[in-house]
Structures are given as structure tokens and as C-alpha cells.
Design a protein that fits this description.
InterPro entries: ESCRT-I_UEV_domain, ESCRT_assembly_dom, SB_dom, UBQ-conjugating_enzyme/RWD, UEV_N. The protein is an alpha+beta fold. The chain contains eleven helices and eight strands. Strands 1-2-3-4 form a four-stranded antiparallel sheet. Strands 5-6 form a two-stranded antiparallel ribbon. About 35% of the residues have low confidence.
Length: 558
């Protein structure tokens, strides 16, 4: 797959700044990117094992590996050093959040990849490339996967039937109250985990009873308000009629925050008949429990066992948060000295309760929807804050460049200082030599004065001689040219005879040579050539003998 041109342009511009062999690095990285499009190049700061940081070219991504017939993509990252290709690239396995490194023969626990191909890279750098190394990695990972998936803990399945949690220890209560409270604690309450439990009905439907601690918590209860002095318990009122519960939540809790105190019961609960619940119509707009969460209670005969939980339906855990066992207020339910044992409410309490129902708070009127047409066209901008803006986080690339620049400048300064220190001795010797030369030049300048006067007089004489020679040349042009024989005159007669004999002997040799060439080209016939050559050769021999004789006589030939 071809690499996009703007990526190649960026790659070349990055390599020209720090890398030693730009063309080789560009070629190898471009080939790797074309073969593996899942790799993406960028520049990052890499910290070596010795603690030195450098801004390197970083190839990160995944490579496809076939493991047991299935193709997996393992994440890797390759760092290209500045001395590439003389130095081998650094390879790492980079697992994601849901993966972890699997140490093996070629991968250490930190994800560093080791292989003989990388170890022998400096020796065979001209034959190594990242593309070949990726092929080797695929073969290695096909046998030993470098990463494994983390074992994620599965969430427990939702429990539709919650088990009751034991309440924290409470102070000892009277026997009757303790027995009734324990019966309420062990009452199974089925509450749908997806919806909140229903609120209690109006106060005039059922007699008020003490609500037991909730065993199913749908969420963290809100912090309870402080209890007033005296015996204060939260009361809950229930209706056996199932009605849908409204979704309005704020008014439901405030309605039950202040409950009237329970009247003292002088009689034992065992001698009181169980209250019988009667169906009464519910006024509209009130809260009612949901049918799938409550069951209508059954009347019990006098003297029989009390119904579980005091004979009342389960209450909402959020409304009973004041006396919830999760808070420390459950231990402070009864204040002062213990009173008589708690028993069932008397009949007169059932009649007195409807006379004092808690006032129902009106539902707040929802605000009207905003009208976009009535809003002004100007946009109100928030007032500028006087708080200072947050500091800009440091840029690691900028810090790396600054450190590299400082190191480079320090190295250049030290190099220039050492070079200047080594040149000081030579400069001092050169200064002394120049001072000596200056003294010598001054002495030579003083000696050149007489020499200059002598040269000027010689130059005047030379100019006069040149003028005389020019006059002789002009006069010789009017005379006839001399004979060449008159110019070459020997000092003696024998010498002149020798000059003539040598000239004739050389001329005869040249004539015989020319006749031979003429015969070859057909200019003369063979008979003429033979006759002429015979006579010239005889004369040539005589001239040679004469030259030898004259030379012997003059002492030129030994």
C-alpha cells in the first residue's frame, strides 16, 4: 500500500535534522510503512537505559500475526536511533489496558524485544532493515504471543431474593420489645432492585406502628436528622389496597420526618388481640404501596402468635433511614428509663389517629417552558474570573530540545576553548618570529639604499647599450645579405676541407635514399636505379674515406 505523499514529506523533513544517514533511514522506514499500513510514524522523546533522552522517530501500531489459524494484531513500537543504520532500532511490545506483557524467550517483563538479528545489526548494518525485522517478529509471535488478555472479574449476578443482613448490636431492651423487634428484623421483604419501594399510605388508613429496620438497601441512605429528646420512632402507615406509586420524591420524605410519639401501653402484647385491618377507600393523589411488593395481612385470633414484623407490610428503606441499622441512631431509640413493655396499639388509638392526619404538602407547580422568542438576542457572557489561569503543562519535546541544545552548545564551547588553548603556544611563537623578522626587515631596508643606487646606475648603462644595439640593427638593414658559406668559415684550411667533405658525404647518402623510394613508387626504372646508385655509392665511399683521413690527421679519430 503506497504511503501518502504528505507523510513522506514530513518524514524526510524530520530525518534531516538529527539523523546521520537521511536517505537510508528514509528508504527503510518508507518501505516498512508501505508494507504495514497499521504502523504510524511520529516523533517522541525516548529515554535510554543510561538516562539520556533524545527526540527519535517512533513507529507505533500493530502487526498481523497468524496464531493457531486466527489472525491477531499485536501492538509494538519501534524507535529509530540517530545513528541508524549503524545502530539497531529499539523494539518494544506496548500492551493496551486490557492486556499484559507475556515474558518469553525474546520479550522481557518490561516489553523490550531481544533477538540475535538486533544483536548482529552493527556488524551487518548494510544488509539489515526494519522490514526484515518485522517479518522475523511475525514468525516469533506466531509461536510465542507477546501479550495475553487480563482476567477481568465478572460482576455477581443480580439477586432477586436478597438475604437479610444482620443488624448491628443494640442496647438491651425489655423482653416484649426485644422479641417484637427481632420478629420484625427477620421479616422477608421482597423489593425490586430496579425500582424504589413504594411510600406508605395516609395516616388515617392504618394505626401507626414502629417500623423495623430495612433489610434490603437500594442505595446509601441520606444522613438522618438528630432525634428530639424522648422516645421518638418513625411511624409508617400502610394500606392493603395496591395503587401505583407516583414518581414525586421530595415531598414523600418530608411528610414522615415528624411522627407523633407512641403512647404508653400498660398492657402486655400477649393479652391484646391482633388488630384487624379493614379496607378503606384511599383518597386520590396519595402514595400507596405497589402490589408486587406487599401482601395484605391476615387477621390472627386472640392469643395466637403475632404476625411477622409486627403484622404490617414492609416499609420503604429510604423512609426508615432515621432508624436504619446502618446508622448509629438505632441504638438511641429509647431515651431515659425504660417504660412498660411495648404492646399493640389500643382501639382508642385507632380512633384518635384520623383526627390528626399530617397535612399533605401541595405539589409545586412546574415552571413554564422557556419561550425562545421572548429571550433577548444578545448573548450574556459570563463575567471574567479574577482567578489566575492554570499553568501550561511542560512540553516534553520542548524540554528535550532545550536539553539537547544546551548540551550541544556546551560541547561546542568546550571544543572551541580547548582548540584556542592549544593554539596559544603556536601564536606566541609566531609573534616572536614576526618580531624578529621585523627587526631583520628594518636592517635590510637600511642596506637596500646603496644597492638601489647601484641598480639605478646599472639600469642607465643598460639602457644606453640597448640604444646602441638598436642603432646597429637599423644600419645593417641597408647592407646586402651575406653568403652562408662566408658565415661558416673554419679557422684552418683543413677544417674547411673537412666541412665540405662531410657535407658532400651526407648529401650522397640522402640521394641514394631518395632513389630507393623513387623505385618503389615507380618513378624510375630498375636499370636506371642500379646504374645511378652504383656510381653514387662509389663516390659516397670515397668521401667517407676522405673524411676519416682528415679526421685522423686533425686528431679527431683515434
Amino acid at each position: 500500500m503506497p504511503v501518502q505523499q504528505h507523510v513522506l514529506n514530513w518524514l524526510y523533513s524530520v530525518l534531516t535534522s538529527e539523523y546521520h544517514d537521511v536517505n537510508r533511514t528514509y528508504n527503510d522506514v518508507a518501505q516498512a510503512l508501505s508494507q504495514y499500513p497499521s504502523l504510524s510514524p511520529r516523533t517522541d522523546v525516548h529515554t535510554f537505559d543510561n538516562g539520556v533522552s533524545a527526540l527519535l522517530l517512533h513507529l507505533s501500531g500493530t502487526i498481523p500475526v497468524v496464531f493457531r489459524g486466527t489472525t491477531y494484531r499485536f501492538p509494538i513500537s519501534i524507535w529509530v536511533p540517530h545513528a541508524y543504520p549503524r545502530e539497531a532500532p529499539l523494539a518494544y511490545v506496548t500492551p493496551t489496558e486490557n492486556m499484559m506483557v507475556r515474558p518469553g524467550q525474546h520479550v522481557d517483563p518490561q516489553g523490550r524485544i531481544y533477538h540475535p538479528y538486533l544483536a548482529a545489526w552493527p556488524e551487518f548494518w548494510d544488509k539489515s532493515s526494519p522490514l526484515d525485522f518485522l517479518v522475523i517478529l511475525r514468525d516469533i509471535f506466531a509461536k510465542e504471543p507477546p501479550v495475553v488478555s487480563k482476567q477481568q472479574a465478572r460482576p455477581p449476578p443480580p439477586q432477586h431474593t436478597p438475604s437479610p443482613n444482620p443488624p448491628p448490636p443494640v442496647p438491651p431492651l425489655p423482653p416484649d420489645v426485644s422479641r417484637e423487634t427481632s420478629m420484625r428484623h427477620h421479616t422477608p421483604q421482597q423489593t425490586d432492585g430496579g425500582r424504589p419501594p413504594p411510600p406508605p399510605p395516609k395516616g388515617h388508613d392504618l394505626p401507626q406502628v414502629v417500623s423495623g429496620p430495612s433489610t434490603v438497601a437500594t442505595g446509601p441512605p441520606p444522613p438522618p436528622p438528630p432525634l428530639p429528646p424522648g422516645v421518638r420512632r418513625e411511624t409508617a402507615q400502610h394500606s392493603p389496597h395496591p395503587h401505583p406509586a407516583p414518581t414525586h420524591q421530595p415531598n414523600r420524605l418530608s411528610r414522615y420526618e415528624t411522627a407523633p410519639p407512641l403512647p404508653p401501653q400498660p398492657q402486655d402484647q400477649q393479652h391484646q388481640p391482633a388488630p384487624v385491618y379493614h379496607q378503606q377507600p384511599s383518597p386520590p393523589g396519595q402514595y400507596h404501596p405497589q402490589p408486587q411488593q406487599q401482601q395484605p395481612p391476615q387477621p390472627y385470633p386472640p392469643g395466637g402468635p403475632a404476625p411477622p414484623g409486627g403484622g404490617y407490610p414492609p416499609t420503604d428503606s429510604r423512609r426508615t433511614s432515621i432508624v436504619s441499622p446502618a446508622t448509629p441512631y438505632n441504638a438511641a431509640v429509647v431515651h431515659g428509663p425504660p417504660g412498660p413493655p411495648y404492646t399493640s396499639p389500643p382501639p382508642n388509638w385507632q380512633q384518635q389517629q384520623p383526627h390528626h392526619p399530617p397535612p399533605a404538602q401541595p405539589k409545586p407547580k412546574p415552571p413554564p417552558p422557556p419561550d425562545i422568542m421572548d429571550e433577548p438576542l444578545t448573548l450574556t457572557l459570563p463575567s471574567p474570573s479574577n482567578a489566575p489561569p492554570p499553568p501550561i503543562p511542560p512540553n516534553p519535546e520542548k524540554d528535550a530540545l532545550l536539553r539537547q541544545l544546551a548540551s550541544t552548545l556546551f560541547t561546542l564551547r568546550q571544543r572551541a576553548r580547548d582548540q584556542n588553548a592549544s593554539l596559544l603556544a603556536g601564536l606566541a611563537a609566531q609573534r616572536s618570529a614576526m618580531q624578529t623578522a621585523l627587526t631583520k626587515l628594518q636592517s635590510d631596508t637600511a642596506a637596500l639604499g646603496p644597492l638601489s643606487a647601484t641598480l639605478q646606475s646599472n639600469a642607465a648603462i643598460l639602457r644606453q647599450s640597448i640604444r646602441d644595439a638598436d642603432g646597429v640593427i637599423e644600419g645593417s638593414r641597408a647592407l646586402p645579405p651575406p653568403d652562408i658559406d662566408a658565415l661558416l668559415v673554419a679557422p684552418t684550411v683543413v677544417a674547411n676541407q673537412l666541412y665540405d667533405a662531410v657535407a658532400e658525404e651526407r648529401a650522397l647518402g640522402d640521394a641514394i635514399f631518395v632513389l630507393g623510394r623513387a623505385v618503389e613508387r615507380g618513378r624510375i626504372g630498375p636499370a636506371v636505379f642500379a646504374k645511378t646508385t652504383r656510381s653514387l655509392a662509389r663516390e659516397w665511399y670515397l668521401k667517407k674515406a676522405l673524411v676519416r683521413k682528415i679526421g685522423r690527421g686533425m686528431g679527431l679519430v683515434g
